[in-house]
């Protein structure tokens, strides 16, 4: 209740309701908190949840994690496990530092429990993230994922080397790596989901650390099947379903104007929308990347993404969350979080 009654209204008023200003404010404050061991201990006592499972060789303290996009540059890493997250994914990071798209580029749709963003992979670059991770006390206590993307200045034909540059700089620090080829906010990026591009990219990356591929929810089923064939052939550890969507289905009438902004939509409308794809077979862990506006939506999405033959993975598959956080706050040990863990275990 503290979050809903005090924290959220305060954040939503910052700089006249600028969503990105609130995001930056929260990350800065959490970065400060991350340097206070006593405060982190208090948070762990309140929010910590133990529901361990092992997926692609990594032990997750619980299956609800923080998706890429919230803490792109790893500024507040020790704070996230203390808030109850069972893993943390930083990035999306690119080989070259880049400012992203012009502001404003992040828009709340409050009646729909959704967000539209066109951030454009704003980050300080793989080298800066590597330096920060090198200085971070280890272990973090939860698996650390690193989301890799293509630099905007890099032409598509040089994408493989661009991803490799980031991977080489960061491979000793990440427990797993997510290959982001599905953001709608970098021109041409989604072309990397095509068979030839994806095959070349995975051939260069798969091997040392678990590699997951983050896909778009807007792909037609034949394209999904083709993508999964490449993933299986190249031995990826799993698929992250899904990135944001270009669709605008399910928005409340009051959010139609905000929904008209360019960018990817995430949040509650995706729970029953295009994010609930169901390919014929994955044979690999399918991690639900969903805006957990409700306790039930993330595990439901994960199960929807799993086929009959891959269904066995769903009881242990991680679920990452980001855009649900403005509405619900951190995961909690109160009934909603217990329901999430219960549903994540369900067959």
Would you mind describing this structure in some detail?
- By secondary structure, the protein is of the alpha/beta class.
- It is built from twelve helices and 13 strands.
- It has helices spanning 2-13, 19-33, 37-47, 79-82, 126-135, 159-170, 195-205, 221-234, 256-259, 297-304, 325-328, 335-345; strands at residues 53-55, 58-60, 64-66, 88-93, 106-109, 114-117, 144-148, 176-180, 211-215, 238-241, 264-267, 286-289, 319-321.
- It has an eight-stranded parallel beta sheet with strand order 3-13-12-10-9-8-7-4. Strands 5-6-11 form a three-stranded antiparallel beta sheet, with no helix packed on it.
- Helix 10 links the parallel strand 12 and strand 13.
- Mean pLDDT is 82; it is low at 274-282, 290-316 and 334-347.
Topology of this protein?
Blueprint: H1 2-13, H2 19-33, H3 37-47, E1 53-55, E2 58-60, E3 64-66, H4 79-82, E4 88-93, E5 106-109, E6 114-117, H5 126-135, E7 144-148, H6 159-170, E8 176-180, H7 195-205, E9 211-215, H8 221-234, E10 238-241, H9 256-259, E11 264-267, E12 286-289, H10 297-304, E13 319-321, H11 325-328, H12 335-345
Parallel strand pairs: 3-13, 4-7, 7-8, 8-9, 9-10, 10-12, 12-13
Antiparallel strand pairs: 1-2, 5-6, 6-11
Q: Let me know the largest β-sheet.
A: 8 strands, parallel
* Spatial extent as radius of gyration: 18 Å
Shape: globular
Give the uncertain stretches in residue-range form: 274-282, 290-316, 334-347
Helix content: 25-40%
SSE run: HHHEEEHEEEHEHEHEHEHEEHEHH
Number of helices: 12
Strand line-up across the major sheet: 3-13-12-10-9-8-7-4
Which strand-content bin applies to the residues?
15-25%
**Mean pLDDT across every amino acid position:** 82
Helix/sheet category: alpha/beta
N- to C-terminal distance: 31 Å
Total strands: 13
């Amino acid at each position: 209740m503290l979050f809903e009654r005090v924290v959220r209204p305060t954040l939503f008023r910052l700089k006249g309701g600028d969503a990105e200003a609130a995001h930056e404010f929260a990350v800065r404050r959490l970065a400060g908190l991350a340097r206070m061991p006593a405060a982190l201990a208090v948070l762990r006592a309140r929010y910590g949840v133990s529901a361990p499972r092992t997926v692609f060789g990594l032990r997750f303290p619980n299956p609800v994690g923080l998706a890429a996009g919230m803490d792109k540059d790893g500024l507040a890493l020790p704070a996230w496990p203390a808030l109850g997250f069972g893993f943390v994914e930083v990035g999306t990071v690119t080989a070259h530092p880049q400012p992203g798209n012009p502001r404003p580029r992040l828009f709340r749709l409050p009646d729909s429990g959704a967000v539209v963003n066109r951030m454009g992979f704003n980050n300080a670059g793989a080298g800066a993230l590597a330096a920060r991770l090198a200085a971070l006390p280890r272990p973090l206590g939860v698996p650390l994922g690193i989301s890799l993307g293509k630099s905007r200045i890099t032409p598509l034909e040089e994408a493989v080397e661009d991803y490799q540059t980031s991977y080489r700089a960061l491979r000793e620090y990440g427990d797993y790596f997510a290959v982001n080829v599905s953001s709608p906010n970098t021109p041409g990026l989604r072309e990397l989901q095509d068979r030839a591009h994806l095959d070349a990219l995975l051939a260069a990356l798969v091997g040392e650390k678990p590699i997951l591929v983050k896909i778009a929810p807007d792909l037609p089923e034949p394209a999904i099947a083709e993508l999964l064939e490449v993933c299986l052939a190249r031995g990826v550890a799993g698929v992250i379903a899904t990135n944001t969507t270009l669709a605008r289905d399910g928005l409340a009438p009051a959010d139609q104007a905000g929904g008209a902004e360019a960018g990817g939509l995430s949040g509650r409308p995706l729970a029953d929308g295009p994010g609930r794809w169901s390919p014929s077979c994955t044979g690999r862990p399918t991690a639900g990347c969903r805006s957990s506006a409700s306790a039930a939506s993330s595990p439901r999405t994960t199960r929807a993404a799993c086929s009959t033959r891959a269904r066995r993975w769903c009881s242990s598959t991680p679920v990452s969350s980001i855009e649900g956080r403005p509405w619900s706050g951190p995961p909690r040990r109160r009934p909603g979080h217990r329901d999430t863990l219960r549903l994540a275990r369900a067959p």
